[in-house]
Design goal:
Blueprint (H helix, E strand, L loop, with lengths): L1 H13 L13 E2 L8 E7 L3 H10 L7 E4 L9 H4 L1 H4 L43 H4 L3 E2 L4 H9 L7 H10 L1 E4 L3 H5 L17 E4 L7 H11 L15 E4 L1 E2 L1 E2 L4 E2 L13 E4 L3 E8 L2 E8 L6 E12 L6 H7 L2 E2 L1 H6 L6 E2 L11 E2 L3 E3 L12 H14 L11 E5 L1 H4 L2 H10 L12 H16 L9 E6 L2 E6 L7 E3 L10 E3 L6 H18 L2 H4 L4 E4 L7 H11 L1 E2 L30 E3 L14 H17 L2
Parallel strand pairs: 1-11, 2-3, 2-14, 3-11, 5-6, 14-26, 15-16
Antiparallel strand pairs: 4-8, 7-19, 9-10, 12-13, 13-14, 17-21, 17-25, 18-24, 19-20, 20-21, 22-23
Helix pairs in contact: 2-19, 7-19, 16-18
């Protein structure tokens, strides 16, 4: 019946008897023939940013919006929805969606500073994008992280301006009273949280016993305990919220922004955007296809196209559309539409390092090697939504300034001694080089700051994970093929700047310092990997090179910067040189904040929707 209805609708549309503002309510589509010929807004990508923007634009019932997404919906598998399973690295618990059919399953090219290893670069190929794959940590960076964006030439992009947008997306739930009864002092400030958004943030109802030891270890090391890091003071140790719906203790994704009841919002799944058609400096159409051997179709853009394909695919689509560095485009036989050398440049990411350990906690609540115990805990989750399966494997972590975990004076001297862009790729365009030099100045000056975190420390029973959050290294995302169905060429150039390796060595040694505190020795913490055989700086460096992996917070490849600094979009997220085309995803982030990225991206997308509305 639906097929017949769609057939008649499309016939009427072709005859001009039905216009776009009387669209049929069969909004989830899987064939190009089912969409309208034109939409006010075409959103490329149904991930976090795309769904937020589409939701806000379609609030106006007189506006038509189409989302085009290469993936589809999840089937709500346990390994997607259950917090501990989806975030676990323990085979006894299970593995999450990374590496699954919901992941693009791409890898970087071999990385010289990592022993020529290729690194997996997860990215969501699914409605909800990275919010289906991520570790569900829901936190924001420090005030200084966002104020940097404004300092780089983006008026209005500072923490105070972004805070209302951060809050707008959120449904915050305070900690359960039973946690207070158990003696856990979890503080929060309601002024920093929203209540009427579409993504949940909540505290896990279960707390790992080792959390108390980690809290005491931080106090022992004179690390400040922050009551609520969501208000811009985020350097120290704190309880974190997770993007989990407390009503059923399952993953909360950006799918909450998708409203299937709106007849003016259409979603085309299983189709990949191949390029944007630009005519006379304005975006006219978006081309897409269901597969390499399928027919290519197009849809007309009446007002704007919003490119939200993510930091790995957004530059690919731009390059295939003739937008990028002319020399690169010419080498592939692509005619230049707009010469924008910053497309695909300024790639950076957060890197983490796994270090193994054991603890002896009483009672032992992490005995996953015991299948009977694991089954009991899983049954507890299924029946009561309680126990360790409601968590991400931890409850508390730290984001620390360089001076807390390293010799900041020595690092600052090493940075000052560098020629700012010396470690960039030799073929880096001059404008991109100039933009990096501005970033380098901020990174260098903030080494001595107490308000900018350079390293994250993730705490769990079996690990302390140091993660670099202020990388000096920069890479690229490019193409070596004119086929949109070939993967982009991802070259992160991890650790290409030796300052990043120095920060990691210091982070590794500080993780050992944490384990050596009296508070941690109360539970007999013992490092099992790499263990006592790795002691010298040279050995630690080798361990870092062989072990670092991505937190998949891919950023920067279509940066919001002035064009003379290698920018791709202006402060209103409009693509330079093209009318009616904006970018709204992590690719616009000029410097990644010291935080897991999703909460920041919700705020960016909320602000972007207002910018778009104000233009029309």
């Amino acid at each position: 019946m639906a097929r017949v209805k769609n057939m008649f609708f499309n016939l009427f549309a072709l005859l001009g008897l039905v216009n776009a503002r009387q669209a049929f309510p069969g909004i989830i589509l899987d064939r190009a023939s089912e969409i309208l010929q034109s939409y006010d807004y075409v959103v490329v990508g149904g991930g976090l940013s795309g769904l937020v923007v589409a939701n806000r634009l379609s609030e106006d019932s007189g506006t038509t919006v189409l989302i085009i997404e290469a993936g589809g919906f999840t089937e709500n598998e346990d390994w997607v929805t259950i917090p501990l399973i989806t975030s676990s690295n323990d085979p006894a618990v299970g593995h999450g969606p990374i590496g699954s059919k919901y992941d693009w399953n791409m890898t970087s090219i071999p990385q010289p500073e990592l022993g020529n290893r290729s690194v997996n670069t997860p990215a969501g190929k699914v409605i909800g994008g990275g919010t289906v794959l991520n570790g569900m940590v829901f936190n924001r960076g420090s005030r200084a992280d966002y104020d940097r964006w404004e300092a780089l030439g983006n008026p209005g992009w500072n923490f105070e301006n972004l805070l209302p947008y951060f809050k707008k997306s959120e449904i915050f739930t305070p900690p359960d009273l039973k946690l207070e009864a158990e003696g856990w002092d979890i503080q929060y400030n309601p002024a920093y949280h929203g209540e009427h958004g579409h993504v949940h943030s909540s505290f896990a109802p279960f707390v790992w016993p080792s959390t108390r030891n980690y809290i005491n270890a931080m106090k022992e090391l004179e690390v400040p305990i922050i009551n609520d890091a969501m208000g811009g003071d985020a350097t120290g140790a704190y309880w974190f919220t997770q993007s989990v719906n407390p009503e059923n203790e399952t993953r909360s994704t950006s799918q909450g922004f998708y409203d299937p009841s709106r007849p003016n919002l259409h979603l085309l799944i299983g189709n990949r955007v191949t390029k944007a058609i630009i005519e006379s400096g304005k975006v006219e159409c978006i081309e897409f296809s269901a597969g390499e051997n399928a027919t290519t179709s197009s849809v007309k853009v009446l007002k704007e196209a919003i490119l939200s394909a993510g930091a790995l695919h957004t530059p690919q689509i731009l390059l295939l559309s003739g937008i990028g560095e002319t020399a690169h485009l010419s080498s592939l036989g692509i005619e230049t539409v707009v010469d924008l050398p910053g497309v695909g440049a300024n790639y950076h990411d957060h890197l983490l390092l796994f270090i193994g350990q054991t603890v002896n906690v009483s009672p032992n609540v992490a005995n996953f090697s015991n299948q009977t115990w694991t089954s009991e805990q899983f049954s507890l989750y299924e029946s009561e939504r309680e126990g360790p399966f409601t968590t991400l494997g931890g409850n508390f972590f730290a984001f620390l300034p360089a001076g807390t975990f390293s010799n900041a004076t020595a690092l600052s001297s090493a940075a000052t001694a560098q020629q700012a862009s010396h470690y960039l790729s030799p073929n880096t365009p001059p404008t991109v080089r100039a933009g990096y030099e501005a970033q380098f100045a901020l990174l260098t000056s903030d080494i001595s700051s107490s308000t900018v975190a350079y390293m994250e420390f993730i705490f769990g029973d079996n690990t302390i994970l140091p993660a670099l959050h202020q990388p000096f290294s920069r890479g690229t995302v490019s193409i070596n093929s004119t086929s949109p169905f070939d993967n982009p060429v991802i070259d992160p150039r991890y650790l290409s700047n030796p300052l990043d390796l120095a920060l990691f060595v210091a982070g590794f040694e500080y993780a050992r310092k944490i384990r050596g505190t009296a508070a941690m020795q109360e539970i007999n913490v013992t490092e099992t990997y790499p263990g006592a055989s790795v002691m010298t700086s040279e050995q630690i460096e080798e361990f870092v090179r062989g072990g670092v992996s991505t937190e998949h917070h891919h950023s920067g490849t279509a940066s919001m910067l002035p064009q003379e600094l290698g920018g791709v979009v202006d402060s209103k997220l409009r693509l330079y040189g093209v009318e009616g085309l904006r970018i709204v995803d992590a690719s616009i982030v000029p410097m990644v904040p010291a935080a897991h990225l999703q909460a920041t991206l919700y705020g960016i997308a909320e602000k972007a929707a207002d910018l778009i509305k104000s233009s029309h």
